[in-house]
Amino acid sequence: MTTPSLVLELKQVCKHFPGVKALQNVDLRLFAGEVHALLGENGAGKSTLIKVMTGALAKSSGDIYFNGQQCHFASPAAAQRAGISTVYQEVNLLPNLSVAQNLFLGHEPRRFGLIQHKKMQQQAQQLLLRFKLNIDVTAPLAQYSVAVQQLIAIARGVAMSAKVLVLDEPTASLDSSEVQMLFDVMRQLREQGVAIVFITHFLEQVYQISDRITVLRNGSKVGEYLTADLPRSQLIEAMLGKELQQLTQQQAATAVAKQAEPLLVLQQISVKGSLSDISLTVAKGQAVGLAGLLGSGRTEVCRAVYGVDVLSGGEIQFGGKTLTLQQPADAIKAGIALCPEERKTEGIIGPLSIRENIMLALQARRGWWRYLPVKQQQQLAAFYIDKLQIATPDADKPIEQLSGGNQQKVILARWLAINPQLLILDEPTRGIDIGAHAEIVLLIKSLCQQGMSLLVTSSELEELVAFAGKVVVLRDRQKVTELSGDNMTAQHIMQAIAEG
Amino acid sequence: MMSLRYLPLWITAALLCLLFGIGGWQFDGFASLAVVSNLFSDNAFLLIVALGMTLVIISGGIDLSVGAVIALSGVATGLLISQYQWHPLTAFALIVPAAALFGALMGVLIHVYKLQPFIVTLAGMFLARGLATTLSEESIAIDHSFYDAIAEFGFALPGGGWVGASTMIFMVLLVLVIMLMHYSRFGACVYAIGGNSQSAQLMGVPVASTTIAIYALSSVLAALAGIVFTFYTFSGYALAGVGMELDAIAAVVIGGTLLTGGSGFVIGTVLGVLLMGVIQTYIIFDGSLSSWWTKIVIGLLLFGFIVLQKVLSRRTALTTVAGSTAHG
Ligand SMILES: Nc1ncnc2c1ncn2[C@@H]1O[C@H](COP(=O)(O)OP(=O)(O)OP(=O)(O)O)[C@@H](O)[C@H]1O
Ligand SMILES: [Mg+2]
Fold first, then answer.
1. Do B188 and A342 touch (CB under 8 A)?
2. Which pLDDT band holds residue B318 (cuts at 50, 70, 90)?
3. Chain B contacts of A300, Cβ < 8 Å?
4. Domains plus CATH for chain B?
5. What average pLDDT does the segment B130-136 reach?
6. Which residues of chain B have a CB within 8 Å of the CB of A80?
7. Which of A121-135, A367-381, A459-473, B312-326 has the lowest average pLDDT?
8. How, if at all, do strands A478-484 and A275-283 pair?
C-alpha cells in the first residue's frame, strides 16, 4: 500500500447548542481509499460532527481543510458540489417523490435543460441493481419499507460520492445479507480512492470493513486508531470510558417462570400472503425471542398478534380466551402493546419534551381525562432516563434535540412504561449503543420477573439468548424450530436460521 | 398505485366532460367551440394566477396576495399608459420585474425568518391592495392603439370560436410552467420542498433560492394576469380581483393538488378552472338559477375533493404498510 493521501481534515472543531457542548476541539482525518469508522455512545456527537463537516450545521469554531485547502461549506448542496455526499441518520429522502426522483434529485440527467425522465428511470434501475433491488422506480418512495428506503438512500449517496462518502448508521435497519452487499460496494469505492466515513453501533461491522477508527466521547475526541491495532476490549473502553458489564454474569437469572401458565398461544396461525401455520406459546413472565432473517416473517408474527394483519387461518388465545383481532385497538384492549421496528419514522413528536413523549402511550391508555400527576410523570421519566442511559441534562428537553439513538431509547421507554400484559418489541436495540444494550437486557429481565410477558424480535442473537426463555426461529415465513435451555445458543440459532 | 395518484385528476376531467355533455344535451349551442374558446378567454387571468398558485401550493405554501397584485398591476398599467403616456409594452417591462421583486421579498421573509406563508402573503395582500387604492381610487380607462390591436389579434375557429391574445398568452405560460414543474430541476426542487423542506435541504436542494423564486414567480404570474385582465376590461381598477386568490386556491385543490404540498399536477389546475367555468356557463345558459349557485356548487365540490384527498392519503398509508410487509 502506498501512503494514503489526506482528503478532508477537521481541526479543533467545536459546536455548541444552547446549554450543550456537542463538540469540543474535535479533530478528524479522512484519507483517500480508507474506511474511517466514527464511533461513540449515543449522544457522543458523531452525527453533529458530520453535520458540521458537510455544511448541514454551522460550526462554532475550528477549521476544515479539503484537499489541503481551508474551506467552508455553507450548505449540504455546497459539500455535494465539492464531491462529498452524505447519508444522514434521519430518514432524509422524500416520501412524496418517486424512487428515481429521490435517487437523482439535483443530478437529473438533462438534455437542453430538460429532465429526461425515461433515462433517469433506467439509470435508477441500474443503480439499484447494484444493491440487488429490483423495484418499480416510478412508484412513490413512501410505498417501500424502511430497509428498502435505507438502501435507496445509500444508493443515492454512493452514486454521488466523488471523493468522500459519509454514512451515518446506514446499517441500522438492514439485515446481514444487505449489510454484506453494502460492504461490497464500499470496498469497490475504497479501491477507487473514495474516503468513507462509517458510523455504526455494530462492532463486528467495524472490524469487518474499517481501516481506521476515531472514537468520540461526550463531544470530545478520545483518539484515532488503526483498526488492526485496536483490540475490541480497548475499543469498548475508549467508547464507554469504562469496561463493559459482562452480559454473561446475568445469565444466572434466566431460569424463571419454568412452569408458568401460558398467556399467549398461537395455534397454527396463517396470514394470507405472509405467514403459514405458525404455532408458539408465551408463558406469563416469559420472554420469547423471534429469530430469523429479514423477510423471514418475524415482523409479520408481531403484526398478526397486534391485530394489524387479520388472520386467514388458525387461532390466537390470550389469557385462556380466544382472541379475535380485527384491528390494533382490539389487541390494545386485551392488554397487548407493540413497540414497532420503524421507530425512526414513527412516533417521535419533535417539539414535545422527553417526559411528554414517554407519557404519551400511558396517558392515552388511561384516557385523557385521568391526567397523570406531573410528579408521578417526572418520577417515571427519571426512572427510564436512568435505566436506559438516555443522555440528556433533564427530562424537559424537546426530544428533537436528542441524538438519534437517544430518541429511540425514549420511544422504547414509552412502551415499557405502559406495563402491558404482553409487550411486543420489534428490534428493541437497533441504533442503541453497546453500553445501553446490557441495560436493556437487564430491564427486560426485570420486567419478566414482575410478570410481564414479552415477544421480542432481534437480529442480535447474543442478546436474545441473554434474556429469552425460549427462541423461536423462523424462515421463509414458517416456523423452523424452537430452542430453549442449553440448546439455546447463538450458534444453534444461527444454524437453524441458515439450514432450517 | 399510479392510478391512485392520478385519481383526483381523472375525477375532475370526468366531471368536466359530464357537465359539458349534460349542458350540450340540454341547451343548443352549449357544446360548441364558441363556448370552449370563451371558457379560456373569459378565465384567462384566473388560469394564469392559478398556475402560480399551483407552484406555491405544491411547495407547501400559499399566496394570498395574488388578487391584490392583479389589482395593483392593473392600476399601474392604467396609470402609466393613460396618465404618463407610456407605451403599454414599456409599462409591462416595468411592472413585471417589480412584481418579481415584490414576490421575492415575501419569499425572503418566509424563508429567512421562518414565517408562515399565510401571514406574510396576507400582509402582502393588504400592502398591494392599499397601494393600488392609493394610486387611484377610481377605475382608470385605458385607451391606446396597442390595446385595440390586442383586442383584434387572434384567429377564428369554426363554429364561432375565437382564440384571442389572452388565450394565447395563457397557452404559452401553461407550456412554460409545465416545462418548469415537470421537466426542470427547479420543479423537482419545488416538489422536494413541499414533501419535507428539511430533508430537501439535507439532500442538497437550494431551499432558500427556490423558495424565493417560487413566490417571485407567483407574483409575476399574478401581474401578468392583471395585465391580461386589463385587455379584458380596458381599464385598471383597484378593486379588481377581490377574492381571486381564493378562486385560484379552489381551482388548484379541485385540480387534485394536495394543500399539504408535495403532490399535484399543473394540468389539474387548468381542469379545475375550466370546471368552475363550465359550472358558471351552465348556470348562465340555464338562466333561471342565480349566479350564486356557482359558488354553492364550487363549495360542495371543494368539500368533496378535500374528503377525497383524505381518503386517498389514508389509502396510501395502508399500501405503505403492505409495502413494508412485502419486504420485512
Ligand atoms: N438541535 C439540537 N439542539 C440541542 N442539542 C442538540 C441538537 N442536536 C444534537 N444535540 C445534542 O448534541 C449531542 C450530540 O448529538 P449527536 O446527534 O451528534 O449524537 P450521536 O453521537 O450521533 O448519537 P447517536 O448514536 O444516538 O446517533 C447530544 O447531547 C444531543 O442532545
Ligand atoms: Mg447520530
1. no
2. very low
3. 325
4. 2-319 (1.10.3470)
5. 95
6. 204
7. B312-326
8. unpaired
ipTM: 0.86
Higher-pLDDT residue of B41 and B5 is B41
Chain B residues near any Cβ of chain A (below 8 Å): 1-2, 5, 179, 183-185, 188-189, 191-192, 194-196, 199-206, 262-263, 316, 319-321, 323-328
Q: Which residues contact residue B323 at a Cβ distance below 8 angstroms, ignoring those fewer than 6 apart?
A: A143, A144, A145
Q: Of B219, B195, B222, B189, whose CA–CA distance to B207 is shortest?
A: B189
State the cell numbers at A369: 381525562
Q: Is the distance from CB of A278 to CB of A266 less than 8 angstroms?
A: yes
Residue A254's pLDDT is what? 47
DSSP H helices in A161-202 = 176-191
Give the residue from A204, A229, A260 showing the smallest Cα distance to A39: A204
Interface check for A86 against chain B (CB to CB < 8 A): the answer is yes
Q: What is the grid cell recorded at A123?
A: 439509470
Chain centroid to CA A193: how far?
A: 29
Which pLDDT score, from 0 to 100, does residue A258 have? 53
Contact assignment for A140 to B316 by CB distance below 8 Å: yes
SS3 per residue for A65-91: EECCEEECCCCHHHHHHCCEEEECCCC
User: CB of A435 within 8 A of CB of A217?
Assistant: no
Q: Which of residues 378-397 of A touch B (CB under 8 A)?
A: none
**B69 touches B190 (CB < 8 A):** no
C-alpha span between B201 and A75 (Å, rounded): 8
Strand pairing report for A61-66 and A69-71: antiparallel
Fold match flag (A6-241 vs A247-499): yes
pTM to 2 decimal places: 0.83
Query: A76 C-alpha to center of ligand 2: Å?
Result: 17
- In CATH, which of 3.90.190.20, 3.40.50.300, 3.30.70.100, 3.40.50.720 is domain A6-241? 3.40.50.300
Indicate yes or no: CB of B325 within 8 angstroms of CB of A146. no
Residue numbers in A near B2 (CB within 8 A): 138-139
Beta bridge partners, A281, equal A265
Contacts of A74 in chain B (CB under 8 A): none
* Distance in Å from the first CA to the final CA of chain B: 20
Q: How far is A91 from chain B (nearest CA, A)?
A: 8
Is the model's pLDDT at A204 over the cut of 90?
A: no
The CATH architecture assigned to A247-499 reads: 3-Layer(aba) Sandwich (3.40)
A47 touches chain B (CB under 8 A): no
Answer yes or no: are the C-beta atoms of A425 and A443 closer than 8 Å.
Answer: no
Q: Which residues contact B28 (CB under 8 A, 6 or more apart)?
A: none
Please report which confidence band the pLDDT of residue A257 belongs to, taking 50, 70 and 90 as the band edges. very low
Nearest-neighbour CA in chain A from B24: distance (Å): 39
> Do residues A403 and A391 touch, judged by C-beta distance below 8 A?
yes
Listed by start position, the domains of chain A span 6-241, 247-499
Q: Which three cell numbers stand for residue A421?
A: 400484559
Backbone dihedral angles phi then psi of residue A290, each to the nearest 5 degrees: -115, 120
In angstroms, the first-to-last Cα distance of chain A is 43
The CA dihedral of A226, A230, A234, A235, to the nearest 10 degrees, is 50
